[in-house]
């Protein structure tokens, strides 16, 4: 295979339109890593159905997500780009790992607790089991590093626990992965309530920027972003709105906190907000054009995901066979 390169696995759920948080916390970071590592970037459609999806929207979003990966600069020649449901090993390994995972550890997951808060008895078992499938995704590829935003760290921890437990019960089978969180942009906050993570499921649309938001919408949302009455561009815990906008600017432009603070000293927020908006627009606009190009070329997307799933199936099945054998299943 690709020599001794370390392995990266990551993915995004096609369950809603992607936000600037997904882009800065995950995709932008992947693009930087693709030269150095052997990378698997996956469209997590099995995870998307843990909440109800309209079939035609799921189909459209899955292809659009693939187009977003490509448009952002993930090179299909260098990386394996594929769709999770095209590799049945994920579901099979997910089941085997479910059988050695505890209800107790799953019920402690904060994402599950948040999402299930108002659902009572009608919460799907898939949502509860979600982290086990995620562990399967990662462990099947003998992954060293998982580049994700901060909100996924707890899921990474349990993936490590699940992998270590299997190794202990059945002898060494999996590489135990590490999380890899970007230095800047690992948690982009909501622009209306900067104590919360920016999320596509938020009700107030001014709280988030979508990757596909047109420039004038981006400008309007940044302009409306919550700040404070201090009027100083400073990076601290008292000015969470400003801090978030600074983080966005830093992650896109590579400027440091000090450079930004100095540049806007004594200038108030108007120029600063304007520059943040322009930075986002100039980052996203060319990507949007490419996304539209790729989504219009279904045959090309099909070529990419078919080729990706061939390689992914091959690698994942090797690990799956080991798991089956160690568990005691009769070889097929
Ligand atoms: P998902 O689809 O919710 O989010 C995809 C990626 O975007 C990051 N992210 C953010 N980063 C910074 N600021 C934000 N506001 C923000 N919002 C989201 C997430 O941390 C994530 O990296 N469970 C995963 C999908 C998954 C997966 C995997 C990831 C399934 N199997 C295996 C890695 C490895 C999820 O729901 O991501």
TrEMBL record:
It is found in: Cytoplasm. Pfam families: tRNA-synt_1b (PF00579). Transmembrane segments: none annotated. Keywords: Aminoacyl-tRNA synthetase, ATP-binding, Cytoplasm, Ligase, Nucleotide-binding, Protein biosynthesis. It catalyses: tRNA(Trp) + L-tryptophan + ATP = L-tryptophyl-tRNA(Trp) + AMP + diphosphate + H(+). The keyword Nucleotide-binding applies. One of its GO terms (cellular component) is cytosol. L-tryptophan binds at residue 137. GO terms for molecular function: ATP binding; tryptophan-tRNA ligase activity. PROSITE patterns: AA_TRNA_LIGASE_I (PS00178). It comes from the Bacteria. Its EC number is 6.1.1.2. Its main location: cytoplasm. InterPro entries: aa-tRNA-synth_I_CS, aa-tRNA-synth_Ic, Rossmann-like_a/b/a_fold, Trp-tRNA-ligase, Trp-tRNA-ligase_bac-type, Trp-tRNA_synthetase. PANTHER family: TRYPTOPHAN--TRNA LIGASE, MITOCHONDRIAL. Catalyzes the attachment of tryptophan to tRNA(Trp). Homodimer. Belongs to the class-I aminoacyl-tRNA synthetase family. This is Tryptophan--tRNA ligase. The gene is trpS.
